Amino acid sequence: MFKEHAVKLAIAPIAWTNDDMPELGRDNTFEQCISEMALAGFQGSEVGNKYPRSPDRLHRALELRGLEIASAWFSAYLTVRPYEVTAEAFCAHRDFLHEMGANVIVVSEQGRSIQGQMDTPLFAGKPVFTETEWAALAEGLGGLGRLAAEKGMTLVYHHHMGTGVQTVAEIARLMELTEPGEVSLLFDSGHLAFAGENPLEVLRAHLPRIKHVHLKDIRPEVVERVMRDQLSFLQAVKAGAFTVPGDGCIAFAEIFAELARHSYTGWFVVEAEQDPALADPLEYAIKARRYIRESTGL
């Protein structure tokens, strides 16, 4: 289905230990996390808060297990803070990832985001950017994209629940306001389905700019409860809204086929934040790896 060596498979550490809710997976160590990733058959990882920030230490730990770093999340505040503040932090983040051999930088705008607020209803409290905020976001992302290019890297924008870029329309607007050579797109199947959108619509509309893929599934009965009971994003995670590919309701066969038809190259990252006390991370990592192999041959 995919060209040989075109796609690498990674998994995010958030299934083992949650950066936003440290109580989830508090006792799971960095070493356990990456060892189980390798045991499940993955080639790479994104970076979590428990990962060493010394490139030498991190390289050694990963090399022992045959793993690479695919990327890492970066929180931008371009709509609420001076550009220079975000740019300075971005450059430090960029340089760390460059030393780790990554070639994409995951960026999400957190200005007025509610994704980290435990008691704010996810759907009712979602921010909507003003014209001024859209302009600041687009201009700022262009600047960050040029900074990424200085190291031969690509900025990929992560649309996300609870932020100002969540819906099909908002993603389309961001793509219209930014230059393809400066800002690419991270495609996240789970966030689109959670938002009530059709992931294939975004995939087909923006394929040339999609340079990174997060594979995430949802449990529709939990999402329905999130909407009915006005739960927050963090409450939704605790309730089990997300799961690994093949364990929810998303039609991944069509997604994989579309990406293969357009000769996608890059990382597939399994990212499904769950409570590790309820969803054993190794068990779900193996389940995801098996599903991807059966669906794609990878």
TrEMBL record:
EC id: 4.2.1.44
Protein name (database record): Inosose dehydratase
Top-rank EC class of the record's enzyme: lyase
A single MF term (Gene Ontology): manganese ion binding
Ranges of residues in domain Xylose isomerase-like TIM barrel: 38-294
InterPro entries referenced in this protein's UniProt entry, alphabetically: IolE, IolE/MocC, IolE/XylAMocC-like, Xyl_isomerase-like_sf, Xyl_isomerase-like_TIM-brl
Gene giving rise to this polypeptide: iolE
Listed cofactors: glutathione; Co(2+); Mn(2+)
Keyword vocabulary terms for this entry: Cobalt, Lyase, Manganese
Family: Belongs to the IolE/MocC family.
Cited SUPFAM superfamilies: Xylose isomerase-like
Pathway of action: Polyol metabolism; myo-inositol degradation into acetyl-CoA; acetyl-CoA from myo-inositol: step 2/7
Alphabetical GO biological process terms: inositol catabolic process
